[in-house]
Write a structure and sequence with these properties.
Elements: E1 2-9, H1 13-23, E2 33-41, H2 45-49, E3 59-61, H3 64-69, E4 75-78, H4 85-94, E5 98-101, H5 109-122, E6 126-128, H6 136-147, E7 153-161, H7 178-181, H8 186-200, E8 207-214, E9 218-220, E10 226-228, E11 232-243, E12 246-255, E13 264-271, E14 274-279, E15 285-291, E16 295-301, H9 320-335, H10 348-367, E17 371-372
Parallel strand pairs: 1-2, 1-4, 2-3, 4-5, 5-6, 7-12
Antiparallel strand pairs: 7-13, 8-11, 8-17, 9-10, 11-12, 13-14, 14-15, 15-16
Bound molecules: nicotinamide-adenine-dinucleotide.
Length: 375
């Protein structure tokens, strides 16, 4: 067993989620690398306190430069607001560390391109966080779409919905401020989730038309006042992708105002001969379309068929913490050269491609026109 020492910059929602995925690494049964959390950096001392319960996490600092200077860290995971991605990711690379970077990989397209250039110059191993395709149902959708079983592809829908912004009384955080989340708003927040599988299938839009919607113009600031919220909350991207010589409609959906949804990632791909549907709203259910003289949507209960095997019984349901752990298993295995044919994490080039889509969507919204993307 090889042990890889990890430092986390940003000990908020995602920093804690990753730390707890490491803490139950014993669940994995077929992997020869184990992450050890050795360090955490967060500007907020209160955020650091939570990490006191992890005995291996000896370095807790409010200055991430101290973490980067430490020789107890091999790989850095960064989960901070988007306005800080570029500076911190480039500092990680300059410190000679490998990186698992949170999406959207820079606040906008120029920032993502500068990060990609720094990655290429550094030669470090870098991937972008996007865990939803590690659900067994998402993996099956990917394999099915790659297999040719669809026939001629007719239509693709890929999206991510939640409803966190429906409650007008919910205090604002940095994700509702363009200065910190980026002009893209929900595109930056949720877009990588919707784009990852289509991009891995080689389905990058050639043209698109976007409809973007804002949420409440102001929210409580959590201190008794109100704060202006200026980000896009919902995005519908109607695009065309070239698949086997045909232009196919592909809709990408990112919503923070989706009544009834809580972190629902979904994909549906329809073809002349077959079709496939998966949604995390039904985490172990896969729908496959078949036709003969009659037509069927067949429902399969998948259970816990993750690509890295675990102690969890095969009949149980997978969830968000499981796919976070699967994503890290893929990152660490690929870094060791041991991923094999398994599905890998989103690459820096895929992250830049997602930003090209978001940037075109913003341009489309501004001018209310169809925008052509560079191949
Ligand atoms: N993969 C996913 O499913 C997923 C889900 C949520 C968020 N995210 C992404 O993760 C990142 C962080 O989001 P979050 O929800 O964890 O945010 P959060 O606000 O909960 O946590 C961010 C933390 O970063 C700290 N921080 C800010 N600037 C810092 C600095 N210079 N040095 C050290 N710490 C600093 C803050 O104090 C805070 O504790 C974003 O890029 C977001 O898009 C990914």
């Amino acid at each position: 067993m090889k042990y890889t020492r990890i430092g986390i910059i940003g000990g908020g929602l995602m920093g804690r989620e990753i730390a707890s995925a490491f803490a139950r690494w014993c669940a994995l049964t077929d992997i020869n690398v184990t992450p050890v959390l050795t360090a955490v950096a967060d500007l907020n001392p209160a955020a650091l306190e939570w990490f006191e319960k992890i005995p291996s996490c000896q370095l807790r600092t409010t200055d991430y430069h101290t973490l980067l200077a430490s020789d107890t860290v091999d790989v850095v995971y960064v989960a901070v607001p988007h306005d800080q991605h570029e500076a911190i990711y480039i500092d990680v690379l300059s410190a000679g560390k490998d990186l698992l970077a949170e999406k959207p990989f820079g606040i906008d397209l120029p920032s993502a391109r500068r990060i990609l250039a720094a990655v290429e110059t550094s030669g470090r191993f870098v991937r972008c966080s996007s865990e939803m395709p590690f659900f067994p149902g998402a993996q099956r959708a990917f394999e099915y779409a790659s297999s040719g079983a669809l026939g001629r592809v007719l239509e693709v829908v890929s999206g991510f919905h939640h409803s966190s912004d429906l409650d007008a009384a919910k205090p604002a955080n940095w994700k509702r401020l363009s200065s910190k989340c980026g002009e893209g708003g929900a595109l930056n927040d949720l877009g990588m989730h919707a784009c990852h599988l289509p991009l891995r299938l080689g389905w990058k839009p050639s043209r698109l038309f976007a409809q973007l919607q804002k949420g409440y113009a102001q929210r409580p600031d959590g201190k008794g006042g109100m704060v202006a919220c200026d980000t896009w909350d919902n995005a519908l991207i109607h695009s065309w992708v070239r698949i086997s010589g045909t232009d196919v409609p592909m809709r990408l959906e990112m919503k923070r105002l989706a009544p009834g949804a809580t972190n629902t990632w979904f994909i549906e791909i329809l073809g002349t001969d077959g079709g496939i549907r998966f949604s995390t709203a039904e985490p172990k259910t896969l729908w496959v379309f078949e036709r003969n003289r009659e037509q069927w949507w067949k429902r399969t209960e998948l259970g816990f068929g993750t690509q890295f095997k675990t102690v969890t019984g095969g009949i149980f349901e997978p969830g968000f913490p499981d796919v976070i752990q699967q994503m890290w298993a893929a990152y660490l295995s690929e870094r060791e050269g041991g991923l094999g044919t398994r599905f890998g994490c989103a690459t820096p080039a895929e992250a830049v491609a997602s930003h090209e889509i978001f940037s075109a969507a913003l341009e489309s919204e501004r001018a209310s026109k169809v925008v052509t993307l560079t191949p």
